[in-house]
Structures are given as C-alpha cells and as structure tokens.
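ARCHIVE RECORD
Type: protein–small molecule complex
Small molecule: 2-oxoglutaric acid
Source of inputs: curated submission
Record status: active
Notes field left blank by submitter.
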Amino acid sequence: MTHSAPAAALRHYINGTWEEGTGSVLTSVNPARPGETVAHGPQASTEQLDRAVAAASAAARAWAGTPMHERGAILLRAAGILERDQERLGLELAREEGKTRAEAQGEVLRAAQILRYYGNEGDRSAGEVFSSPRRGERILVVRKPLGVVGVVTPFNFPIAIPAWKIAPALAYGNTVVWKPASTVPLLALRLAGALAEAGLPAGVLNLVIGPGSLGSALVEHPRLDGLTFTGSTGIGRRLAAAGAARGVPVQAEMGGKNAAVVLRDADLDLAAEQVLLGAFRSTGQKCTATSRLIVDGAVADYFLDRLRARLDAWVTGDPADDGVHMGPLINGAAADSVSAGVEAALAEGAELAYQGKAPGRADPDGGFFLPPTVLELPGDPAAGAANTAWREEFFGPVLSVRRAADAGQAFELANQSEFGLSAAVFTQDVTRVLDAVDSLDVGILHVNSESAGADPHVPFGGARKSGYGPKEQGGAAKEFFSHTTTVYLRGGNPG
Ligand SMILES: NC(=O)C1=CN([C@@H]2O[C@H](COP(=O)(O)OP(=O)(O)OC[C@H]3O[C@@H](n4cnc5c(N)ncnc54)[C@H](OP(=O)(O)O)[C@@H]3O)[C@@H](O)[C@H]2O)C=CC1
Ligand SMILES: O=C(O)CCC(=O)C(=O)O
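STRUCTURE (tokenized, with ligand):
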C-alpha cells in the first residue's frame, strides 16, 4: 500500500516568524522508499542561527518573568494540538523516520503526555524553605532559568526527545534554540508548529534546521547559557568538552549497549516476547534497545527456540502498512554500518543463531531494510568479551547472545560494558531481583519487561559513559534547566 504525500517545504522558526533558509538545500526521504521526498528546502545558515540566538536572548527576560502557570498553559494547549493531529503526525513520523505507524502514533502521544507533565509544573514545588540557626530568619532556595538553552536532538525519537528537552526548558523559564537531526525535519516543523499555534511568544522557541555544524556553532555561541544534547557518544563528548571550555553547562545523553538477563527461573515465554520487543522494535534504533542477551546456560537452548519462533512471525516491511513489525533503518549509511558490524562479528567467531527476512536493498529504490539478526558469541570468555558485537553499539536490529553459568556470572557479563544506560532482568525470585538492583550499574532497570521504555515523571538517563550531566525528565530535569539562588531572608526589623 502507498501512503505518499506531497513533500513539505522546509522552514525555520525565528523570532516568531516562519522563514526560508539561506543555506544549502536539504532533502529528507522516506527510508522505506528513498525515492520519495518527505521534506525539502534550504537549510538555515549561521547568520540565521545568530538571529535565532539573538531572538531567544531578547525574549529571555519577559519569558522568565511570565508566571509558571501561564507558561504551562501554552504547553498544555500544544499537547491538545498533538493529540488532535495524532493520526496524521503518526503517519508522517513513520514515513520520515521508519518506525511502524503504531509506534509512531504512540510517540506523538508520548510527546503530548510530556508536554502535559511539564504544563502542570506550576502546581508543583518551585523551591525549598529551610529553617535558619538565627532568630527571625528563614532560608529559601529559589529556582531560576539558565537563560538561552540550545537543544540538539537525534533522529530516532523525532518528536518525543525534543519534547522532553523543550518542555522542561520552557516550563522553567528558559528560551530555546533547537537544531533537530537533519534526517527528520518534518516532525520538527510539526512540534514547533504546535507550540507556535498554542501561543508561544515570539523568540521563546526558535527552530533552525541544518547540518551538524550548526550544533557546534550553537555550543560555541557567546550568548548561549546551556546546551542539552542526545545522540552519539563521540559528538556528545565533543559538545560537552566545548561547553566546559566556555563554562556552559551541557547535558548529554549518549550511547548504550543494553543487556537483557534471563535467569533459569524466569517465565521464559514472557522473557522471549520482551527480549524480542526490546531488541527489534524501532529496528533496534533506540538508545535503550536490548543489544546483548545473557541467558542462563540451563535454559538457553529452550529460550533461543522460543525467541526464534517469535521471530519467524516478525514482519519487516513498509512501516506505514498494517501488520508490519519492523521498518527500515534511517538511511543507507546506517544500514551499511550495521551490516559491516555483523560481518566483523562473524569474522571474529560469532555464529549466526537466526536471520529473518527483509525486503531487498538491491533495487535502486529499495528501502534501507535489514533482517532481524541474532548472533551467538564465542563461549570462550575472552573471545566473547572481545567480539565487536559485544562491545560496539550497532544501533540496528542485531542481538548478541552469551550464556552464563549462574545469576552471579550473568550480572558480571551485563556489567561488561563502558555504557550503563538500561538493562532488563527476567526472574521470578525476589532475591535475584534485589541482587540485580544492587549489582547492575545502569541508569534504568526493567524487571520482567523490555529494556526500552520510560515514563515522563521519573528520571531518564544512563550510568557510566552513557550520560553526562544531570538526568532528563521528571523532577531530574529541573537540575539541568534551572539553577538555585539561596536567599537568607530576615524581616527589616527583627525586634
Ligand atoms: N542516550 C540516549 O538517550 C540516546 C542516545 N542516542 C544515541 O544517538 C545515536 C543515534 O542518533 P543520531 O541522530 O545518529 O546521532 P548523532 O550524534 O549523529 O546526531 C545527533 C544530533 O547531533 C547533530 N550533530 C551532528 N554532528 C554534530 C556536531 N559536530 N556538532 C553538534 N551537533 C552535531 C546531528 O545533526 P545532523 O542530523 O544534522 O547530523 C543531530 O541533530 C546513537 O549512538 C544512540 O545511542 C539516541 C537517542 C537517545
Ligand atoms: O526507551 C525509550 O522509550 C526512550 C529511548 C530513547 O530515548 C532513545 O532511544 O532515544
């Protein structure tokens, strides 16, 4: 079935006005049918970025002085607009990013839920009051915005990740300059459009669509007061270093190499279903995706058979079509890099435990599809640990398996990574659950559910080298998007 639509014109939102870019031309395509253009037009230039930062800077004082309930009311109206348009936006997201229509529509609703959470922030505590060791005094800790915040976002959650950065930034009184991933500009236009339609004053949110170099120009900009980034580890570290050199706070959410641990007492059917979803939903392109599976040797053969049986029913194809479970990768370079990773892993001794079917890439208009793939890594501990598929984030539909002798060894293997974003553990034994909580060094732990998925009201982010700076979402977002002033408060005449 085809779901094509006319290509959208690329625009940039600067100081409350939609304008044409003055940079080179950008085209985003449907990764399932790369001949189909989704959005097209000139990118923003550095002169436009400069004007966007100037507009955000000019709007900062008035926005910071706007009552939080008024700021929140705009976010709540924007949430309603996303809910109203959820079907159309879900289809557009599936066409531009490649996740299935159901997941895409779910992501639009998740963005709305995030806007609602921060829209209601005015009803929550805005600071703290301490008693003082001196008579007639109280000590208040009040929160203030940073000022102008840069937001740089990845392709894989084109509306939810921007929402969970932009909504708290705005709720706590910052103004924003946003540079989205250049593979998914259409959804950026839609989110900025919803916030503009909801009544955001001019200059409070500015959208500049353009290449990665605009992101580095942003962190170097003398009027920037903070930068929040999600994306690859290399770029996140460079931005963090650039921010540190200038004294600008940076929050960076980066890579993951997340493990699912299946213990011998687990409900193995439930675990097989959840590992399947964690590894292959969104084509494995989630920072929280399950890319390593550690299964107790006593149940490994049975478990892998259950997983293979589920994979036999897993359909890869056009994500806009009903009945499809997995779409393409975001672009040809991503698909090539994942294929190269699989080849390297096989050359280093991995065995192909399963490879599913996917539409071919040979046709010039063939989408960037890859089959779901399961690799069993060498049993030798050193060879297993050294295998490329164990160490490197592929960001694609590949699951690497190792067997463990017992729970203790399984947790050791799970910690065998420089990353520590999320993990899943499958067991029915509460003692094992408590062991997992104590021993797994991750920012997010799912017990008897897949390693991906996060709610807006609780902290999100990684341990180890997965994250830098304060965590995102829930109350944690406040730590990054505001700073504190401690007020020693006495009456004028203590008597
Ligand atoms: N921990 C987490 O929460 C998450 C982590 N990720 C990680 O992100 C990666 C995949 O996302 P992807 O979009 O490919 O990541 P990238 O790091 O390639 O891109 C992320 C953003 O950074 C921009 N960018 C590119 N180069 C520069 C630069 N030199 N300076 C500043 N900004 C730059 C990109 O722009 P452009 O698109 O124009 O190149 C994009 O907007 C994976 O490694 C994944 O683990 C993804 C989502 C969540
Ligand atoms: O697990 C989730 O739903 C969020 C994951 C995420 O932020 C990401 O993959 O970019």
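CURATOR ANNOTATION: The chain has two domains: 8-254+466-486, 258-447.
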